[in-house]
Amino acid sequence: MSRDPSFPVPNRPVPNTVFRALRGARSPGEFAAAVRRAGREIGERVSCDARYVGRVEAGEIRCPNYAYERVFLHMFPGYTLTDLGFAPRETVRGRRAHALPYAPPHKAVRRPVPDPAGTGTTPDPSVDEESDVLRRAFMTGGSAALAGLALGTTADPAAASPTAASPGFRPGTDEAEAVEEAVRHIRLLDDRHGADALYEGAGRTLRAAYELVDAGARRQSVTDRLHAGAGELAISVGWLAHDSRRYTDARSHYAEALATARVAGDPALEAHAFCNMAFLARDAGRPHEAVRAAQAAQAAARRLGSARLRSLLALREAGGWAGLGDRRACGEALGRAADLFALGTADADPAWMSFYGEAELAGLEAQCWSALGDHERAADRARRAVALLDPHFTRNIALFTAQLADDLAASGKLDEAAAAGGRAVRLLGGVKSTRIRRMLDATADRLRAHGSPVDAFLGGEPRPA
């Protein structure tokens, strides 16, 4: 397959000349100090140094994590990330950015989504149904089918088979890029719309990805990328099953990712798989398993150099201890999570953790305190999570608003609970998540038990089967 000449050569970073110009006459060290000062001004701790500034200017960091984004936008009011020379976040929501080829900003095709107010439909500019990047990256064979499946546009699963279409086919860089793009795109859509509408198409995409793995690449570098990409895709599809309460399917996908990590000797993928297995075990009512999986994830992550990853994994362990009713062990794990979080971000932080900031920390703490029956503290943490969340994470805003509603109801604050529940229901106009819907049903049942009217809360919508 010939490469489109308008695209830069893969794996060759494009220097960020805009960011370099904004640094001006300051040395990289002086500019890094200014970044750290700006972070302190808004309560964001970033471990910026001259090396980080150099990597940004060299184009190795195509898009900063959310902590750095907030700091940069504070430093340069009125600018967007693309104004600062970065790539759009939707093009890097997957594997670590420095391992991926640069793709220029692309034109989105807008899809109508439900209007929460019930007045019709409104275009959602953040959803890329089929971008120029995807069309160019997936022009032939298995790559084209993989792209279509990631978007839910390919009806025939057999079309995704590169080996069936081309006997003797061996995947290369284009196919590895296709898998990585599928991971990014599925995660982006899930952040905004929830899992229910995505799961079936994503499952077909996963099967196509593993066919590429089985076909066998000629170069080890491509083999490594395919294993890592397919494993991350298995976790993403597992999460879609998890959020849709298809727990058996989710367990299978997470186990597939773990097996891929073990075969490839990839500790980062192993830590991610165990992280999600711990989360699933907690939600499925297996707290002992949640603790063990979280501890295994922490063992895999020790040599990865990411304090933020270890913080999240400590929270997964805390969730297991909360399910067991062990307040002391839960508190210790929460303390470790907070201490590790306070160490700040690092270049080693996995790209899939872009959701994990102060808001997510507060939300997961809320879930632990709620499981332990401390609903006042849980409501306080859930309220903080909702206030801090980036608007991009629509599903998580709905999730923690639902958590807040339930803890307010359990605390006897019925009017506040109904109001929060109503906000969560309105958010679900654009989010399809069985898990959140059932949380709200449980809150409605709690309000009914107290004689509180819930008609406005439920909005007349049917309960899920």
Automatic annotation (TrEMBL):
SUPFAM superfamilies: TPR-like (SSF48452). Gene3D superfamilies: Tetratricopeptide repeat domain. InterPro entries: TPR-like_helical_dom_sf. Residues 116-125 have a biased composition (Low complexity). Residues 105-128 are annotated as: Disordered. This is C1 regulatory protein. It comes from Streptomyces smaragdinus. The lineage of its organism: Bacteria, Bacillati, Actinomycetota, Actinomycetes, Kitasatosporales.
